[in-house]
Design a protein that fits this description.
3-stranded mixed β-sheet, DNA-directed DNA polymerase, 522 residues, Zinc Finger, Delta Prime, domain 3, 22 helices, alpha/beta, nucleotidyltransferase, metal-binding
């Protein structure tokens, strides 16, 4: 009989085997690592750190290396030496001075009170006692309050390192007491390079395009990339990982299939689009992955459409870039943006649907039919606008316009009277990008008309503060408007006065018991 303790060797997952043991091995976080090393070298070590970022970017690994480095007896340039007694003790997990706490399972106030009692005691071996609290956002509000005082004024020998994927859930009182380090998603090229090194060490045969595919689907997380590679090794023979095996494992559709679906959307070929979808579905492809691929391809088409430096922004082969170039030439960039937004909205719905295939069919039909179907009622695809006559503003006609102009807005030489209400919304969105508060104030206004290059906007009586803000920044708005529409226009903002003797106003007051009546536009 063999007991558990007699097992000579146990299998360790790749991401644990190749977890960084020094700062030099941490990839994709050069700025953060440089700052941490300099603090160790100059002995300007603070009492509390906050490492935040998406999963698998090296937060916990960096925290452990930092804990080892500050206690190392012979650290050089901020790096742990790995040969002194302290380093060896830490690597063997035989030290009591580095305490890892999982906040997800130790989230209550009692655990934090216990921690507060223990921080008083000095370190047993090293210079510092380091507390690494992982997923710190999981602590309760009472636990945060209990930690607050200790975090603000800990003993000189104590360092706190808080790690989280959701810093937005932390109280501001905690955030303000920590030095914050943002761990960004690791670049695809860095992940690919690291995996290539690991594959060479393990004698794994794998093509560059296969490594790139794994790196892309890791979403900036080195841990996820190694987990995918490990799964591929489980189904491969003789340590050979093929491109097809990775695609099948991830449920990824062929590039040719994705480009074919995009071509059917561009050419408004509903039947072919549904046929390609059926093919992907029968072959066991993940529909969420397919949607993701379509979004990314449309994104690449948009990049190609608006910039010449596409090589730096698109991760694709030259052959695929040529295909995307041809597809992008057939469609306007506004329409591509609409495709991306529609697919993104539907992708979120698919994740929680019991009938994902039906939803994908619906979105493909919708995209293929866009600009061909116009409905006489209010919908997400169409915007109802009113044409105001210069002579009789009380007479109005309703028009249905496509949500996306058939020509790029930048090429318009003047504001079209029928389209101007729609274009006013575009102006508001453009201002919002420069100044969110100013754009929101402008959006509170209501487009009325254009007379002799003067754009007339009205604000309700209760929106005086927005009117004043827009008038104060009128020159900036006019400059932006003129750049968009390539003509000289002036903004005329006034306050709309409701006629108190109007019969409808009187009825509204009586029914709702209101002193004031304001008009809003849906």
């Amino acid at each position: 009989m063999m007991y558990l303790g007699e097992i000579d060797m146990e299998y360790i997952a790749l991401y644990r085997t190749y977890r960084p043991k020094s700062f030099a091995e941490v990839i994709g976080q050069n700025n953060n690592i440089t700052i941490l090393k300099n603090q160790i070298v100059t002995q300007k070590i603070t009492h509390a750190y906050l490492f935040c970022g998406t999963r698998g970017t090296g937060k916990t690994s960096a925290a452990k290396i930092f804990a080892k480095a500050v206690n190392c007896e012979k650290n050089k340039d901020g790096e742990p030496c790995h040969i002194c007694n302290t380093c060896k003790t830490i690597e063997n997990n035989n030290i009591m001075d580095i305490i890892e706490i999982d906040a997800a399972s130790n989230r209550g106030v009692d655990e934090i009170r216990e921690l507060r009692e223990k921080v008083k005691y000095p370190p047993t071996i090293g210079s510092y006692k380091v507390y690494i609290i992982d997923e710190v956002h999981m602590l309760t509000s009472e636990a945060f309050n209990a930690l607050l005082k200790t975090l603000e004024e800990p003993p000189k020998h104590v360092i706190f390192i808080l790690a989280t994927t959701e810093p937005n859930k932390l109280p501001t009182t905690i955030l303000s007491r920590c030095q914050r380090f943002n761990f960004r998603r690791i670049q695809i090229s860095d992940i690919q390079s690291k995996m290539e090194q690991i594959c060479k060490q393990l004698n794994i045969t794998i093509e560059d395009k296969t490594l790139q595919l794994i790196a892309k689907n890791a979403d900036g997380a080195m841990r996820d990339a190694l987990s995918i590679l490990e799964q591929c090794l489980s189904i491969s023979k003789e340590n050979i990982v093929s491109y097809e095996s990775v695609k099948n494992l991830l449920g990824i559709s062929d590039d040719h299939l994705v480009y074919s679906i995009i071509e059917t959307i561009v050419n408004k070929d509903i039947k072919s689009a549904l046929d390609y979808l059926e093919e992907a579905y029968k072959n066991g492809k993940e529909l969420t992955q397919l949607m993701n691929q379509l979004i990314l391809c449309f994104r690449d088409m948009l990049i190609i459409k608006i910039t010449s430096a596409k090589e730096n922004l698109i991760e694709a082969s030259e052959e695929n870039i040529d295909t995307l170039q041809k597809l992008s030439n057939q469609v306007e960039k506004e329409l591509i943006s609409y495709y991306i937004e529609s697919l993104t909205d539907m992708e979120n719905k698919i994740k929680f649907s019991t009938l994902p295939k039906v939803l994908v069919e619906v979105i493909l039909i919708k995209l293929c039919s866009f600009n061909l179907i116009s409905t006489p009622h209010k919908s997400n695809q169409n915007i109802k606008v009113q044409e105001y006559s210069n002579n009789q503003q009380d007479k109005k006609n309703d028009y249905i316009l496509d949500n996306v102009p058939k020509k790029p807005i930048e090429k318009k030489k003047s504001l079209d009277q029928v389209n101007s209400k729609f274009e006013f919304k575009i102006l508001c969105e453009a201002i919002k990008k420069e100044s969110p508060s100013l754009g929101s104030s402008l959006q509170m206004g209501k487009f009325v008309s254009i007379t002799e290059n003067r754009v007339n906007i009205e604000f309700n009586e209760g929106d005086t503060i927005h009117l004043l803000k827009v008038n104060k920044n009128k020159s900036n708005i006019e400059q932006q408007m003129n750049e968009i529409f390539q003509n000289e226009y002036f903004l005329n903002c006034t306050e709309y006065q409701i006629k108190e003797d109007d019969e409808l106003v009187q009825i509204t007051k009586e029914v709702f018991g209101a002193d004031k009546v304001y008009l809003t536009e849906e």
